Known about the structure:
By secondary structure, this protein is an alpha+beta fold. It has a single domain, classed as Arc Repressor Mutant, subunit A (Orthogonal Bundle), CATH 1.10.10. It contains three helices and three strands; from the N terminus they run E-H-H-E-E-H. It has helices at residues 10-17, 21-29, 46-54, and strands spanning 7-9, 36-38, 41-45. The longest helix has 9 residues, at 21-29. The chain is globular and about 35 Å long.
Amino acid sequence: MVLYNPIYTINEICDLLHVSESILWTYIKRGRLRYVIIENTCFIRGIDIERFINNLTAL
């Protein structure tokens, strides 16, 4: 069973992760988080967020 949306906007991910847009773009530019562009709008797939969160290291 899938517990997340299949696709999110950049703003939704910022709210979900409690990070700024610039931090999120840093993750994207470093290749830690993948995105797709649909009709000139950037989206992040739910599966990519799940992978990103699973790969975070605890402090």
